[in-house]
Structures are given as structure tokens and as C-alpha cells.
Amino acid sequence: TPSSVLVANPAHLTTARLFSLPSIDPKEIRDIVQLQAEKHTPYAKEEILTDFAVLDVDRAGYSRVLLAIAHQDVIYRALRVVEAMGWPLERVGLELEGLVSWFGQVRPSASQPTAVVAVDQEISTLVIIHQHKPYFHRSIPVGAAQVLEQPKEAPARFLSELQRSLDALEAEGLNLAVSEIVLTGMTGSVQEFLPSWQETLKLPLSLVPAGQGFLLPTLPQGDEQDPPWIACASLLGLALDPGAVDLTPAPLKLHRAVELRAGRLMQVGAQIMAVLILGCVLVLGHVQRDERYRTQLRAEARQVGASADELQRQLTEVELLREWAAVQGQCLDAFTEVVRYSPPEVRWDDLDFRQNDRLVLKGTSTELSKVYDLVAALQRTGMFAQVEARRVAKKRQGDQDVSSFEMVCQLGPPAPAAAAEAT
Question: Among residues 5, 246, 233, 272, which one has the least CA distance to residue 104?
Fold first, then answer.
């Protein structure tokens, strides 16, 4: 069982944008990127997961940014597999960053713009790398399977897509002259076409095994009839450097942070206990070995008593912190239940967990009936003693009418009468 798992979200299932912003202020960049994320996707804001990384900052005050956008269904589909296996998730990375990291490992001295193409089963990924930074990327809808099934048409389409990608550099306003094309992944299917492609593109083409430069056995490349089942260059790159982009959903990040803090508190408590127990054993050993130190033993015993009181105080603090962590976990479980039953028409804006075991949420809905449907669904779960909607009011938001409301969820089992009524 692995100690942690890093998921690489495929490039063709991610909307990735590379652009420059007239700012170097992190807060201002984040605000601009959030607006760009809503602009580059047809989905609602609550349906997508986004993150970004600042790649370069120039002297003119411009920042070059990598923006990654993925639909949450794509991410959760992979996370359900990890959860079913019982593996601890570390983060959700980006295939594009993995290819850049991999290329930096196999070609650490590369200084000229290079086109890296990861040939996969159905879809290949192309990224232009210069000075170990991505400048352009594109998904090529031709993979090893098509080349094997259509040995005449597919190689020509693959070559045409490569040429279109190189021509698109000028259209994007990138003054980059590609010096070489590096192919990796399931390259056994295209190896025989390299001489003719090289002559057509007027560029050197080379095949680089995914495992080259890594401390692991050479990865099997297979032949045209039996290609490898996955292109793993990006996975090796992310294992070497997880990258700056993290598409892990926020609830999972919160849950992981709470677990990490609770684990550290328990570890510190165990270390303190072990140190104090070791001190007591050493003191008792000296006492048993030499009767002449009885007076010294009494003095040391008093010191041990004081240490035991301090240990008890620290253990009490640890217990209080454990109870606090349990309350936070209860809050997280309750909020997870609310999110699971929330329809797309309901949007949450604020959350407050109060000491009287009440979860208070504020949100808006485009359909008021969905709010009362959600109240009924949460009441039936048996996790809450009472769920009610308050302070319902209609307001105008943009070009549509929405209803704002406050939902109060009292934690604990429902009252017998309410449970019978729900039944």
C-alpha cells in the first residue's frame, strides 16, 4: 500500500491557458485569474476546480501565468478510485507540469525551444518547452491505437497535427523557433515513420524512453503489435516534482489538514511520554543499584512528581486538542452531508459552526423550492436533530431573481416524533 498517491489529471481533460498579466502582485493576479477562469469555461463556477502558477515575472511588470481548469466530475471520478483502494491522497497534479518536469530530468542542459510529444493510447499531448518552462501546449487527437488500426491514414494525420501545432506558434505571437521534436510514451507505433516525418518537418526527431535519467529499470517499449498500455513520462515527472498547480477539491484539503494536525499532536504527546518514561527508568535503575543514593532518590522522586504533574497537564491539553479536532471532524462530516445532497441550483456562501452543535449556512438559490427539498432531504438522513430554513428573501442578482436564505442544522439524532413523522 503506498504511503501517498498523486493523481495526474490528463491534459485533454483540463482547460489549460498560458497568458501574461500586467501585474506582479499575488492578490491582484489571483483576482484576474479567477475572472479568466470563468471566461474560459462554459460551466458554472461551483462546477469547476481551478488553480494557477506564476511561471515568470519580467522587468516590465508582467507575469506569465499557467491557469488550469477542470470539471469537478473529472477529478472526483479519479478520487473515487483512490478512495476505493484505501490509499491516502497527496494532491491532484497536472499532466502538463509533469511533462515539463520529466523533460528537465532527461534533458537538463537543453537551452533551445523543444517540442515534447507524449504519445498515448488515444490522444497525444504536445508542449513547447523553453528554459524548462511551458510556452505552448496542444492535444493531438491521434494516438498509438489509431496508428496501429489505420497504418495509412493515422500517421498522416499525426504529421499534419504536428505541423499545425508548429504553425500555431506564430499565430499565438510566440517568437520561438523549435530546434527539436522529442517523442516519448507509446512510440513503438510511430518509430518507422520518423525518417519521413523528419524530412517533411525539417526538424530532428528523437525517441526518448520515459525512464531515461530516472533511477528505475528501463520501461518496456513494446513493438507495433504490443505497445505499452500507458504513457508514463508525465507521471514520472510529477513524482519527481509535484508542480505548483493543485486541483484537489477544497473539502479534501480541509480534511487532510485536520488529520495532519491531529496526527502531529498525538506524535508530540507520545514523544513526551516516551522521554518521561525513559527518565523514570534511569532513575529507578540507579536507586536499585546503589543503596547509598537513597537521599538523592527522594530528591529525584520529587522532581519526577513535578514532571508527572507537568505531563498530566500536557496530556490534558492534548486531550482538549483531540476533542477540538473531533468537533472539527464532526463539522466537516456534517458539511460534507449537506454538500452531497445540495442540488446545482443551491449555492453556499458562508458556514458557521457554533458551540451549541449547530451548523449555520447561508446561501442563495435560483429556485426556492429546491431549498425546502434540501431541508427535507437532510432531515431524512438522520444526522441532524432538526433542519430548518430561515430568513428567506428574494433579490435581484445580475439578470435573474434569486432567493437568499439561512439554513440551521442542529447536530444529533432527530427527536422521536420527528423521526416517526419522517418515516
Answer: 233
